Amino acid sequence: MNGVIKARLRDVRYALPNLVERIVPGEGPADAAAQCAEFAQRGFKTTAGFFGAGETSRETVIAANSQVAQALAETRGNTLLAVKAPAIGFDPMALRSIAASGVPLVFDALTEPHAAQTVALAQEFCAGIALPARWRRSVADAERLRDDPCRIRLVKGEWADPAGDVPDVAAAYLELASILAGRWTMVGVATHDPRLAETALGMLLDAGTPCELELLRGLPRKRTLEVARKMGVPVRLYYPFGPGWWPYAIDKALARPYLPVWAVRDMLGL
Question: Does 21 map to a domain?
Fold first, then answer.
């Protein structure tokens, strides 16, 4: 009986994100731009990122990115546009169209096999790029991009390295921060771990490197905001939107049941 119940609960866990995808349309480009403008009034920089659903076509992804870029340009705020290069087929013409708005682009990190093409596009367009600490190739990428004009966003990484993750992701994160310390272009420290944020930001500040803390919409941020305020660095909020965002968020919450506990601890300052 217990095995049957567990199997049914497992089926519900994997079916729920797909169900949400079918019934929740997600915010559109205009809504996302308005939310970014609202956060700007509260003192946050922002990054908007479109999350397509499973069936979202390449043309729809390009159109959504173009629309939000134009809407963001009209708000004249300090907002970046995060683009998922594989979702637009690594198409330079599409990127030129999106970039014509004048809103700076930054490429999200997806799977490791896409990394080489994404780094090449970032250099071609002088766009930002995310470097995941869990990928073994990221050290070489950090060294390659250290003196480039593109901004860099340090992340722990959502997707595994096919060759095997580094043994200690936090240590790898700080190694990347050490490599980038001393560069003259912005480094975003994207983490909700206050100790990791404080150490990485300290390395960059000590070397005179411009840096900022980056946080994801929906995750606890009280303690990391306190770190940023104490260290005097700006904060950027990543604002995902689109039909794929809520299914993605629910899937991650179901896979990480410690998140509600973390949220309560963060709220209470524990």
Answer: no
Query: Of residues 249 and 224, which shows the higher confidence score?
Result: 224
Calculate Rg over the CA atoms of the chain. Answer: 19
Q: Measured in whole angstroms, how far is the alpha carbon of residue 131 from the centre of its chain?
A: 10
Q: What is the pLDDT of residues 9-68, one digit of tens each?
A: 343 333 333 433 444 445 789 999 999 999 999 999 999 999 988 778 999 999 999 999
Residue 142, token pair as written in the block = 């950090």
Instruction: Specify if 35 maps to a domain.
Output: yes
Domain assignment present for residue 250? The answer is no
Q: The domain containing residue 105 runs over which residues?
A: 27-243
CATH code of the domain in which 212 resides: 3.20.20.220
How far is the C-alpha of 250 from the C-alpha of 202, rounded, in Å? 33
Say yes or no to pLDDT of 255 above 80.
Answer: no
For the stretch 99-131, pLDDT in tens is: 999 999 999 998 999 999 999 999 999 999 999
| Residue tagged 């797909």 (tokens) | 18
Task: Please count the other Cβ atoms lying within 10 Å of the Cβ belonging to residue 155.
Answer: 22
Inform me whether the pLDDT recorded for 1 exceeds 90: no
Q: How many domains does the chain have?
A: 1
- List pLDDT tens digits, range 203-217: 999 999 999 999 998
